[in-house]
Amino acid sequence: MTSSLRISIPRPIDAHLHLRDGRSLSSTVAASARQFGRAVVMPNLLPPVVRCSEALAYRDRILAACPPDLSFQPMMTLYLSENTRIEDIDQACAEPDIYAVKLYPAGATTHSEAGVGHIDRVMPVLERMAERGLPLLIHGEVTDPDIDIFDREAVFIERTLIPLRRRLPELPIVLEHITTREAVDYVQAQNGRFAATLTAHHLLHDRNDMLVGGMRPHFFCLPILKRREHRQALLAAATSGDPRFFLGTDSAPHAQHAKESACACAGCYTAPVALELYAEAFASCAALDRLADFASRHAAHFYGVPVDTQEITLSAQTWTQAERLPYLDGHIIPFRAGSELQWRLEDAV
Ligand code: DOR
Ligand code: ZN
Known about the structure:
This protein is an alpha/beta fold.
């Protein structure tokens, strides 16, 4: 099907992105810079990006990997560890390229081993962030082995987030990649500088897509896809116009062999077709007129950066995405590889 329907929006912000490091950057940065003008870059490298000097050196490597015809602003983050010092927070606040600190509960996800065992151990650092207004980005899942993987986000809100908010109501927070109705309800009840990111894959898919008719590792991510009623709550939140919800892909590249394995890594590589996927999600709710706010404005306001003056254009057309892309010495399987997409990002002229 070819149609003349087109939509132009300010170049969006990906408010949650994994780019990895080293030779991966030549693939990952180009894919995101084609789609986004800015991205909030996750710090879960090996070793993690804990100090400001490490974040700035990482930023330089990202910029060096960016194709010269594309402009791309990496918004850097620090990895909160139990070794993070108050002076790291003060330095981050003085550094215009560092925008936030990321909390990974230790053991929650990829490269989270150096994360936080118990939130009490980082309370002095969080207090300083609250005083200084530096946002905390949260991977909101408990790691308690007794808690079912499908319940880990809702239990995190009860056990960790509600007490944290009570203790530090001024701390700016982004609850990252929310996946449940409970998280939507919680975010909607918050005041002040509190927001949540939503991935394209959680807006478009539920756990049946991952598990019915065979186990599809390219749909496996953390937090894991939930049942359909949660997806519907996420779609309603994303398309509601509420500025507390904004785009964050959580695009997380893993080489083909690491995904297609007896113990598959968590992460969906959505970056190459991210805006196509979000357009499909918004079109499914007849809400394309709200895409620009969700993708380009809400995160800009939250982080205090200008809305991009350049635009990107998506057109309604059916096309088939690549089966695989070159990555390191092998390949990577992009999300929805080889399948038909209904929207296409036009190349900038
Ligand atoms: O699926 C995920 N992959 N979730 C995360 O939280 C981390 C990410 C990664 O870095 O691979
Ligand atoms: Zn992530």
